[in-house]
């Protein structure tokens, strides 16, 4: 009995010793793993510290500038850290002299990076954390802008059809390729065939177009007044003078796709004159319509509100569009002379009268659009005066256009339309309140326009 109890106790002691030894081994294994990881971390930290110390020693080591004694007997010393500091200010100063946006940002990043090195490896031996952090922020901001510009230029080069790129180079070269991509991103390409009506006289038109291919006829009361060719704008309504008119503009003429007009070369006309001496009719006629092939016209169409929103948000694009539209007016004036030479005008007097009526009607449509928001009339008075000078709108024409819109000259200058009361008595207090309310709306619109720009 005693032997059995002793044997059982021995077995218990043996199992306890085995379990304790296993626990000790587990503890040793678990403690050895963190110690290995700690040693690895210390090793990497030691390597980083050695690298920083070596850079510190290299950048802060005094060096002499080898100058000949005939230039200066004095010995000049410098460090590479000081060179980084000087180059930072030189690059920032040079960035102010460049006109290219991308070059400016790249030079700003290089200057800020040099300042980061100078701030960390400062000659006094202390890290200047305040300028280092600010320059790191500037590097991040400018790097983001650089990537944005590069991405926009990539899209302008690869995401636009080759035909549209050539069209910009030939007719709208003042518009930057990136801005042209922005315009095409909100534009729509339309296609018309011979006989299609694009705009009808007297109808409200919310679009601005430019002819991409073909030729259009502009008719006032059925009389041909203008011919619009490739690269010409339609319904710009004073945008060239700076009038940013949203909404719809009443069309002052009808625009249709006429028959293809074929212009013969002068050499061919001369040969035909020499071959047939009796064909005087054919000798005097140098142009004709080609009935064989119908004309196809394509246009780029923009919604007026969307286009104006884009132009108001981008000043460079707005100036480029104004320059392009100004040149477009010159091209249209030259086209009128070609119409006379080509014999497309049968009655010059009637043609001149219709063109004048069309110009006054266009100006009246512009005034009607402006008078929908009378609080903005004063803000656009300078642009309206510029438009009147460009298109020779006299005071008499201005008064007729106001009368057509139901306004008088005094109401236009006051900025609001008077209401006739039943008893024909005008309350001075109401007039004062109206003027004050109009001034509040006017200045509020100015603040909103300033915030948008």
Mean pLDDT across all amino acids: 80
First and last CA, distance: 105 Å
Radius of gyration: 40 Å
Q: Tally the beta strands.
A: 14
Oligomer: single chain
Treating each run of at least 4 consecutive H or I residues as one helix, how many helices?
15
The chain-level structural class is alpha+beta
What proportion strand? 5-15%
Let me know the largest β-sheet: 4 strands, antiparallel
Helix content: 55-70%
Element-by-element helix/strand order: HEEHHHHHEEEEEEEEEEHHEEHHHHHHH
Q: Which runs of at least 5 residues are low in confidence (pLDDT < 50)?
A: 1-10, 265-290, 421-427
Order of strands across the main sheet = 3-14-6-9
Shape: elongated
Structural write-up:
- The chain has 453 residues and is α+β, with helices and mostly antiparallel strands.
- 60% of the residues lie in helices and 12% in strands.
- It has 15 helices and 14 strands.
- The strands form five sheets. It has a four-stranded antiparallel sheet with strand order 3-14-6-9.
- A hairpin with a 2-residue loop joins strand 7 and strand 8.
- Helix 9 crosses helix 10 (315-342).
- Residues 1-10, 265-290 and 421-427 have low confidence and may be disordered.
């Amino acid at each position: 009995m005693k032997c059995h109890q002793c044997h059982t106790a021995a077995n218990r002691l043996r199992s306890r010793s085995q379990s304790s030894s296993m626990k000790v081994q587990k503890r040793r294994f678990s403690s050895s793993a963190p110690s290995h990881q700690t040693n690895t971390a210390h090793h990497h930290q030691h390597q980083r510290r050695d690298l920083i110390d070596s850079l510190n020693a290299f950048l802060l080591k005094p060096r002499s500038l080898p100058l000949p004694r005939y230039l200066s007997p004095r010995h000049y010393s410098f460090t590479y850290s000081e060179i980084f500091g000087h180059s930072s200010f030189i690059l920032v100063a040079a960035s102010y002299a460049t006109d290219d946006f991308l070059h400016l940002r790249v030079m700003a990043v290089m200057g800020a990076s040099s300042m980061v090195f100078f701030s960390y490896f400062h000659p006094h031996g202390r890290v200047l954390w305040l300028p280092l952090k600010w320059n790191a922020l500037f590097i991040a901001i400018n790097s983001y802008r650089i990537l944005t510009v590069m991405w926009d230029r990539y899209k302008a080069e690869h995401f636009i059809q080759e035909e549209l790129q050539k069209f910009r180079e030939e007719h709208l070269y003042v518009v930057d390729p990136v801005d042209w991509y922005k315009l095409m991103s909100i534009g729509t390409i339309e296609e018309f065939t011979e006989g299609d009506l694009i705009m009808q006289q007297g109808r409200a038109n919310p679009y601005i177009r430019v002819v991409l291919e073909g030729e259009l006829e502009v008719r006032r009361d059925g009389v041909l007044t203008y011919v619009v060719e490739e690269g010409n704008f339609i319904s710009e309504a004073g945008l060239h003078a700076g009038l940013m008119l949203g909404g719809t503009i009443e069309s002052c003429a009808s625009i249709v796709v006429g028959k293809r007009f074929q212009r013969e070369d002068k050499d061919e006309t001369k040969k035909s004159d020499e071959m047939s001496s009796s064909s005087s009719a054919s000798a005097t006629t140098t142009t004709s319509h080609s009935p064989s092939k119908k004309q196809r016209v394509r246009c780029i169409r923009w919604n007026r509100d969307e286009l104006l929103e884009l132009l108001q948000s981008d000043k460079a694009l707005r100036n480029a569009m104004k320059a392009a539209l100004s040149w477009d007016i010159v091209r249209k004036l030259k086209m009128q002379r070609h119409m006379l030479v080509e014999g497309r005008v049968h009655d010059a007097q009637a043609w001149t009268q219709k063109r004048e009526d069309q110009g006054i009607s266009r100006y009246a449509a512009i005034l009607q659009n402006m008078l929908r928001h009378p609080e903005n009339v004063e803000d656009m008075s300078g642009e309206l005066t510029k438009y009147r000078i460009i298109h020779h709108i006299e005071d008499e024409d201005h008064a007729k256009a106001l009368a057509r819109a139901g306004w008088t000259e005094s109401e236009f200058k006051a900025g609001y339309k008077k209401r006739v009361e039943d008893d024909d008595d005008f309350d001075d207090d109401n007039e004062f309140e109206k003027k004050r309310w109009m001034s509040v709306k006017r200045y509020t619109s100015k603040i909103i326009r300033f915030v948008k720009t």
